[in-house]
Amino acid sequence: MKIQILKSKIHRVKVTGADLNYIGSITIDEDLMDAANIIEGEKIQIVNNNNGERFDTYVIPGKRNSGEITVNGAAARKVQVDDVLILITYAFMSLKKAKSFNPTIVFPDEKTNLLK
Q1: Cβ atoms 82, 15 nearer than 8 A
Q2: Domain 2-106, CATH among 3.40.50.1470, 2.60.40.10, 2.40.40.20, 2.30.30.30
């Protein structure tokens, strides 16, 4: 049996952009992606603390050390610039492995979205 558990979390980042005319996804500063062990194309859940929206998309890398968090495509309607988000990825693994697995959780600077 495999279960789905928390793999990575970027806790409390501010939206820096919302691009309705992009084909989809969320653009995340590549430094944040590396710190949280998130890869390009990975499925990600977005939780908007400002309005309660929860939705899934996939990740594309943004410029390093930029603090960029841009929600693209139709999902751009679910956020506004400066909304606070929690970004979550999950992994499937055996119950035995899940019991000893430690997720990666990143707490960036809330004003700049940069690593502390």
Answers
A1: yes
A2: 2.40.40.20
Written as tens digits, the pLDDT of the chain (116 aa) is 999 999 999 999 999 999 999 988 999 999 999 999 999 999 999 999 999 999 999 999 999 999 999 999 999 999 999 999 999 999 999 999 999 999 999 999 999 999 98
Looking up tokens 């495509």 gives: 73
Q: Is 58 a catalytic residue?
A: yes
Distance CA 16, CA 83 (A): 9
Q: Decide if 22 is catalytic.
A: no
| Pairing label, strands 2-14, 84-94 | antiparallel
Q: Which of 8, 58, 94, 100 is catalytic?
A: 58
- The single residue of 8, 25, 66, 94 carrying the catalytic annotation is 25
Q: Give me the torsion for CA of 26, 28, 32, 35, rounded to 10°.
A: 50
